[in-house]
Recover the amino acids of this structure.
């Protein structure tokens, strides 16, 4: 059965900091309403390559989106394009690189910041273009899209955790406190989303290191959280979910075709 899916990508969130600092999400985990997995990012552990990886299931070295400066549309089928083929409604509150990958490149803020165009792969998009755009504003943007357009697939992508990591590093009070703040912001919305029966995935593209950057193979750069919330998930403990399987697994939840996309069957309930 098709369900509606909300995918939250908390940019630049290291697994251990997510585990230690996000008390609301961990409360859902302790009470059995959510399950937290540790997931390894693909390489390089950088943003634009991994947005493409999460949203198409294709790792950077194959997709060709191998660094942050490649400004072009994705050439692969994404959750957005596949959902549109199935006549599903798509929306995103996200950094402008997402608009560049799936709607139009290069980004022109006057044209693209507020996108309401039913012919685009991302039909309803509010995109931002400064890394310090406040997470609480971004969540309001996302909730506005959800309430106005009732999307089947909604991507929510705040940037403040990554921004704080670039300024202060992994092992800093500022980075950890930003994760705590974002956890608290999410707590305003998750009760309603859960009540309304959404299947929710909360993850990150990559982690962060003590050099105030990321990109390589250090565990702190690669290990990211994956929380899943909702009745369509198996909630099995100790799963290794490949980052490349998020796309196919989300397509499965949306009950849309996902030919050539890998799927993590163990993550989903009733999938053999
Ligand atoms: Zn970053």
């Amino acid at each position: 059965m098709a369900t509606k899916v909300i995918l939250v990508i908390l940019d630049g969130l290291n697994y251990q900091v997510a585990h230690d600092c996000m008390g609301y999400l961990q409360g859902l985990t302790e009470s059995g309403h959510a399950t937290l997995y540790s997931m390894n990012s693909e390489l390089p552990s950088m943003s634009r390559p991994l947005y493409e990886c999460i949203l198409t299931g294709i790792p950077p070295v194959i997709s060709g989106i191998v660094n942050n400066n490649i400004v072009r549309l994705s050439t692969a089928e994404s959750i957005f394009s596949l959902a549109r083929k199935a006549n599903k409604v798509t929306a995103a509150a996200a950094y402008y690189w997402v608009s560049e990958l799936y709607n139009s490149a290069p980004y022109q803020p006057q044209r693209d910041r507020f996108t309401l165009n039913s012919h685009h792969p991302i039909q309803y998009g509010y995109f931002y273009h400064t890394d310090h755009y406040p997470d609480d504003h971004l969540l309001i943007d996302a909730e506005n899209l959800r309430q106005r357009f009732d999307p089947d697939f909604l991507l929510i992508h705040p940037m403040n955790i990554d921004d704080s990591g670039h300024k202060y590093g992994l092992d800093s009070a500022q980075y950890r406190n930003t994760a705590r703040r974002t956890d608290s912001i999410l707590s305003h919305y998750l009760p309603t989303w859960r009540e309304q029966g959404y299947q929710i995935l909360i993850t990150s593209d990559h982690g962060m290191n003590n050099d105030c950057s990321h990109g390589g193979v250090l565990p702190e750069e690669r290990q990211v959280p994956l929380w899943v919330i909702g009745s369509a998930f198996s909630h099995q403990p100790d799963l290794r979910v490949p980052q490349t399987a998020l796309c196919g697994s989300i397509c499965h939840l949306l009950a849309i075709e996902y030919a050539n996309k890998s799927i993590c069957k163990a993550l989903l309930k009733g999938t053999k």
Remarks:
- The longest helix spans residues 135-149.
- The chain has a mean pLDDT of 97.
